[in-house]
Specification:
2 domains; Rossmann fold; 430 residues; 12 strands; alpha/beta; 5-stranded parallel β-sheet; single chain; 17 helices
């Protein structure tokens, strides 16, 4: 067995699947360390995994004035990339030093998308094999456009491939000067070339594990055999006792509609609250609001709406008539697995992509981008999601298919196979 270090940063939805994967690896006999932001230390340790800190404060990043502006970039890909640099640039040197310390003595490194730039260079410095582990499709394909460089435009195979190539290079070029300074000063490595390591990794067919559902997004036919789609890495709540007010509320009437936006804030959370409440009123539906980081529903609420600070989504969502959320990859997968229609209000990043996938699957209405969100539009979507028999049947079917997947088990199997091979990863790569 081996010592495996998982490196990931970001919001709760970015971290939770890697804790699930870490638990799966630990249960198969591996010694597992999760290197992530200090905010998640207790959560990692509660799941029996070793924690190592990596510089970064994702909650502060989205709650500050700069972060709120970042949330509103929506489908404006260049604005999202600039916001990523504004958050990542000042902390990248320390984050890389933290990753270097966390990975010392490990046998294999797995890293997520947000942690790519620091961790790839650390793996090269230490001469340790790595596996890329993403929650979004990262390898270029002709079948669909890039998830991390959202676009309103639709095109054919060439357009789709171009969004991956151009979007990836925009990310890379905007962070390359900072990363090359770190490689020289901290790691003693030569700078990356203009193209970076991406084409080399594709040519060498280095393993890439995608931790999302093949039901939601099947593996493209033009991906090579080293790219895997395992199924989502769910971290289920082992047991949960709901508070009495929630039990009573659920028993008092028809299933309500969930509304919550996770770690997304926006510049005006009061507006989100007002829209949500009015949409529920217009649609004639009861509602459960989860405040999350968005600070929803601080004021008085009608009897038809219950506000809670936190409830495990895997327990709550199957008891809802529909779920309204921001389209984060984790919330989307839990929502779809629950077998109820999903209404996505994407804020930025890959959220528009997952909202489009929900609609393409027939498991929810067309997503409502944040800048176009009104109470009337949301009420119309709630009405459709709760009354359209075909949509409800399709959502239930998608839920059954996802429930049958075993994402963590499949990922652990693939990782074990590569560990047994112990390939040489770094010859001629930089």
């Amino acid at each position: 067995m081996a010592h495996v270090t998982l490196v990931t940063t970001g919001s709760r939805g970015d971290i939770q699947p890697f804790i699930a994967l870490g638990r799966g690896l630990a249960e198969s006999g591996h010694d597992v360390t999760v290197a992530t932001n200090p905010l998640y230390k207790d959560w990692v340790c509660e799941n029996g995994l070793t924690f190592r800190p990596v510089e970064g404060d994702p909650m502060g990043a989205v709650q500050g004035e700069q972060g709120r502006a970042w949330m509103e970039t929506g489908r404006r890909g260049l604005g999202f990339v600039r916001g990523f640099r504004a958050y990542t640039g000042p902390i990248l040197h320390q984050a890389t030093a933290d990753v270097l310390a966390a990975c010392d003595g490990t046998d294999l490194i797995l890293f997520s998308g947000p942690a790519f730039y620091a961790t790839y260079s650390v793996a090269e410095k230490l001469g340790v094999p790595f596996i890329q582990a993403y929650l979004q499709p990262v390898n270029p394909t002709r079948e669909f456009p890039s998830a991390i460089f959202p676009t309103k435009h639709k095109g054919g195979a060439l357009f789709n491939y171009a969004t991956h190539a151009i979007g990836g290079q925009i990310f890379w070029q905007i962070i390359r000067p900072i990363m090359n300074d770190i490689r020289r000063e901290l790691l003693g490595l030569r700078p990356f070339s203009f193209a970076g390591p991406f084409l080399t990794m594709l040519r060498r067919r280095l393993p890439v594990i995608h931790g999302y559902s093949p039901t939601v997004l099947p593996k493209p036919k033009d991906w090579n055999e080293a790219a895997f789609v395992t199924g989502f890495w769910f971290l289920d709540t082992p047991s949960y006792s709901p508070p009495p007010e929630l039990t009573s509320f659920l028993a008092a009437g028809e299933p309500p509609v969930y509304v919550g936006f996770g770690s997304m804030t926006g510049n005006d959370p009061e507006r989100l609250t007002t829209i949500a409440l009015e949409a529920l009123r217009l649609s004639g539906r009861r509602g459960v609001l989860l405040s999350g980081w968005a600070g929803l529903a601080a004021g008085d609420l009608p009897e038809s709406v219950l506000k809670l600070d936190a409830v495990p989504h895997d327990w709550l969502f199957p008891r809802m008539a529909a779920v309204v959320h921001h389209g984060g990859v984790g919330t989307t997968h839990v929502g779809l697995r629950a077998g109820v229609p999903n209404i996505v209000v994407p804020f930025f990043g890959d959220q528009p992509f997952w909202g489009d996938r929900v609609h393409a699957l027939g498991a929810g209405p067309r997503p409502i981008v944040l800048e176009e969100l009104t109470a009337e539009r949301l009420a119309e979507s709630i009405g459709l999601a709760t009354s359209d028999a075909a949509m409800r049947a399709r959502a239930a079917e998608v839920g059954r298919l996802i429930q049958a997947e075993r994402g963590v088990e499949e990922a652990v199997r693939i990782i074990g196979r590569y560990l047994a091979q112990r390939p040489r990863f770094f010859e001629g790569m930089a």
